[in-house]
Design brief:
The protein is mostly beta strands. The protein contains one helix and seven strands.
Length: 96
Amino acid sequence: MLEQFENLENFEAAFGKELEDAPKGEVVIRIIEGGNEYMKVGDTKCGYTPGIKVGYHVWIQSPNSSYMTSEVQSIDFEAETFTCVQSTYHFHFVKK
């Protein structure tokens, strides 16, 4: 099912309406617990996200690559962390 999200446009078409109230923009995420074959503890990804919201994947789009987490299980906006099925990430929105 995730194959349908091969680009940001497909992801936004599927979830854009549900993510309207979610924080979005240029973000840096760093994995702080868990990991997978694409990211290990300490690795970062940065780029545009259409939103971070419980129950949805976090998509990060940069000029040269993209990354999608599993579904977000919880978010602590004060600590700037979110937890997915097997990993916890720190996030920081870049202010321009």
